[in-house]
UniProtKB/TrEMBL annotation:
Keywords attached to this entry: Membrane, Methyltransferase, S-adenosyl-L-methionine, Transferase, Transmembrane, Transmembrane helix
GO molecular function, one term: protein-lysine N-methyltransferase activity
Ranges annotated as spanning the membrane: 24-45
Identification of the protein by name: Protein N-lysine methyltransferase FAM173A
Species the sequence originates in: Parambassis ranga
């Protein structure tokens, strides 16, 4: 009996590879992961140093459906549009081809450079689409009557307060995926991760005025 167990153990030792990887493989994997993290942080993080931790939003491009949903909710509107955190410029390009005069505010200089070169390559004129390397929290948005956002749930209440202070009464705000808490929606399209919400600032202000004191904070 003991002999047969030893045979089994010997056999399994022969069949199963040792779990310790070769030192060269370990070194290469470590170097690869460090390199990937370096590229990721270079691409996603530049410009963020001066943004408070709770307002930091990383880069994540919107899907094709999301962009189409934004354009549906902007249907019939005209004028100036600000995309807050314009990423690679996809929302700005879609809106500018629908006739809006667009500004993409983006804190990541690599994404700004990429968007500008894409605009150049596509022959998009600067009065249709401009990309500005600027922190939108520190930007006065009062000259825009259309605003688009795809940010993060944790910043929506603070952004709501800023937009209510600055935007004109006829402004429309489009929020991708993450709605504004306590704002009544004008309309909403899509579902799941592509769900997109539209708000009219005059309606939001009127609604918040009807709430009892202290409840009209986001
Ligand atoms: C989730 S991505 C959305 C990108 C793009 N709007 C889209 O739909 O594909 C958010 C973007 O906002 C940018 N961003 C975050 N905070 C910002 C700030 N304070 N000022 C300007 N851009 C900011 C990020 O760099 C990132 O590109």
């Amino acid at each position: 009996m003991e002999d047969s167990i030893e045979v089994i153990l010997q056999d399994s030792g022969r069949m199963l590879p040792t779990s310790r990887p070769h030192p060269v493989v370990s070194a290469c994997t470590g170097a690869l992961l460090t390199g990937m993290y370096g590229v990721w942080s270079l691409f996603v993080m530049p410009g963020f140093r001066r943004v408070p931790w709770k307002l930091k939003v990383p880069y994540l491009p919107s899907s094709k459906d999301q962009t189409q949903n934004i354009m549906k909710l902007l249907d019939g509107r005209t004028g100036r549009l600000a995309d807050l955190g314009s990423g690679d410029g996809r929302v700005v390009f879609a809106a500018s081809s629908a006739g809006f005069q667009c500004t993409g505010f983006e804190i990541n200089s690599i994404l700004v450079a990429y968007s500008r070169s894409k605009a150049c390559w596509r022959g998009v004129h600067a009065n249709q689409a401009t990309f500005v390397k600027k922190d939108f929290w520190k930007t006065d948005l009062s000259s825009y009557n259309n605003v688009t956002t795809f940010l993060a749930p944790g910043v929506m209440a603070i952004l709501g307060d800023k937009l209510l202070k600055e935007l004109p009464d006829d402004a429309r705000v489009i929020a991708c995926r993450f709605p504004f808490p306590n704002w009544p929606q004008h309309s909403c399209v899509g579902s799941g991760l592509d769900q997109t919400f539209a708000y009219d600032i005059c309606t939001v202000r009127a609604h918040l005025r009807t709430l009892p004191q202290g409840m009209n904070e986001n």
